[in-house]
């Protein structure tokens, strides 16, 4: 059996699109039909929640192609191994997980939609401990519904062979939580374009999907991303979306959309929220 050795680089908490592109570029040749892979993490000193989501999607997608992906554990630092275990990513490589702490939002993966499990994950895992900003009960309900819609959309829109996943991390030293939803389906940008909304640029297609009421399915929809985008504005947090060759980033009220040379084969949505104990957010 022939195995290719693949180096995984760091993906830091404060990164720009080029840091993400560099991380994706390493994996790009191995998403589809390719040799079995051994991951070398000797150059990976930090992995944020976005990197964890990409890595989990990479392994799960390759499984659909009947390809094996392993880690050379001799190249993994104790800190990275502990973090992979708390995210429950180690089970993807046949290793033991580490005890869960509230700071980690461990991997949630479904190949078919289980609505009760989605609601349970949002209510008891994402909102565990200090993972989310303080909100009024009405806003808790609305943000829960928006997060639920993001996960449900994977199964209604994406057509992802390996299903969908979610993962995240609370960073107490900067008082910020990152939460990612990811699939390896058609891709949000391409879905918008195929629906006939004439968006030539993938970045513009993502922007279209963020507007209130915009959806590629008939009937009500489109509120999940819009609601979260508006909350990010008020909170001063961040929203990042990778879809096909499109990249969208929002920091507070500042937004940018552009194309990437290295595509992401699906959709990844990352929400970053600031935890401010002296602020209680409400519906405007």
Describe the structure.
- With 284 residues, the protein is of the alpha/beta class.
- The protein has a single domain (3-274), classed as 2-Layer Sandwich (Heat Shock Protein 90).
- Helices cover 35% and strands 25% of the residues.
- The chain has eight helices and eight strands; from the N terminus they run βαβαβαβααββαααββ.
- It has helices spanning 17-27, 49-64, 78-86, 115-126, 137-158, 188-194, 202-209, 223-235, and strands at 3-7, 36-40, 69-71, 104-110, 164-171, 176-183, 238-251, 254-274.
- The chain has a five-stranded antiparallel beta sheet, sandwiched between helices.
- Helix 5 crosses helix 8 (223-235).
- The radius of gyration is 18 Å and the shape is globular.
- The model has no long low-confidence stretch (mean pLDDT 85).
- It comes from Singulisphaera acidiphila (strain ATCC BAA-1392 / DSM 18658 / VKM B-2454 / MOB10).
- This is Anti-anti-sigma regulatory factor (Antagonist of anti-sigma factor).
Write the layout of secondary structure elements.
Layout: E1 3-7, H1 17-27, E2 36-40, H2 49-64, E3 69-71, H3 78-86, E4 104-110, H4 115-126, H5 137-158, E5 164-171, E6 176-183, H6 188-194, H7 202-209, H8 223-235, E7 238-251, E8 254-274
Kindly report the average pLDDT value: 85
**Quick one: CATH class?**
Alpha Beta
Main sheet attributes: strand count, strand direction, barrel closure: 5 strands, antiparallel
How many discrete structural domains? 1
Using only C-alpha atoms, the radius of gyration works out to 18 Å
The CATH superfamily turns out to be Histidine kinase-like ATPase, C-terminal domain
Parts with pLDDT < 50 across at least 5 consecutive residues? none
Structural class determined from secondary elements: alpha/beta
**Shape annotation:** globular
Number of strands: 8
Strand content: 25-35%
